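subagent[fold] <- orchestrator: predict structure for attached chain, return tokens only, no commentary.
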Amino acid sequence: MKAIKSRLLKRLEVEIAASKTLAKTSCLRAQRALLFARHGHMAEAREQLTDLHQLAFQHPHPEVGAWLHFAEGLMSYYTDFSSAAQEKIARAHAIAKSVGLNNLEALSAAWLAQLAYVRHDLPEMLRLAQACDESAAGTDFSARYRLCTVLGLSHHFANQEEQARLWYAKARTHAQAEGDDAALSALMYNMAEMRTAQARRESLASRFAPGAVASSGLLLGADSIKHYDEAVGGSVKPDLTPVLRAQILTVEGDFEQARLLFEAYLPKAMSTGLARLGSSLLADLAWCRVNTGQTEHGLQQAKEAEIELDPLCDVDDRAITHSRLAQVYGLVGDATAAERHAQSAAAEWQEFAQQQSAWAEALAAAQLQPR
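subagent[fold] -> orchestrator:
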């Protein structure tokens, strides 16, 4: 695995060497372990955190405990995006608030807002975003980066691209000020993923014509993430970028290349965090198969996509799944199944439009501004 090249890592190393107290050193070491995790060096991160847990057992300190709860929460999140992350980060937030650890209080609030966004719990996301905005100092770059990213994603989800760009730009500024290359990589991925999601939606509504990907910059964006990660020493989820590229190629109509990428990377991606998107991605793979002569296999994949279709998954993913399956069944001549999925898709798209409007109204009412 490549060595991490990060200004943030260099700064943490200097601060650890200069630290005069065991508690301060341990807090900094926990932050360093998290940086290793965010660059995909999970084994090293786990080893460092285990050492810190053993040390904290012998020399307990509330600030160290708070940072360890936070670190373990992010380790859970980065491992499989599990719900355990919520409990651990919430505990870190509570301890940080009780002992006046303001930077961690703000950072954990921002991460709890991120988790609320993933759950599409809009009121909770806005409450936590407000809490972070009020508690984070101007130099709490990590907290403000995370806050700006969450609100950029939220505006993007609400189809407010101009507002999203403003939040993303401020997030980039904070990550650069922190010297955090892992944060910049994550921002690049999140922006590319949201743009790809929009392209998928528009392609299924016949508003994004095949061939338009070349001029959209989507493939260039996905490739840039890969090259950047290679330059800075890795990322926490390297399998996600090839899956993103496969989605773009599916929209473009390059079904053979998309199929190969899905086959190589989708199983692992689904097992380590993308299960909630599984139905729409499997439907994409089914579409690729029936367009490359694998009709029987494609129909099997389509049935699997239906089985994986969780009523609790995001509305737009349900809509994408039904729309794509309508295409699959239409192509193979099953008009009944195609119509059934087309009707389901229409209902889901209507609900998604209503959801976007509700998010736009709530974000406007919150009056949060990038800073």
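orchestrator: received. Logging for downstream: The chain has 18 helices and no strands. Residues 207-215 have pLDDT under 50 and may be disordered.
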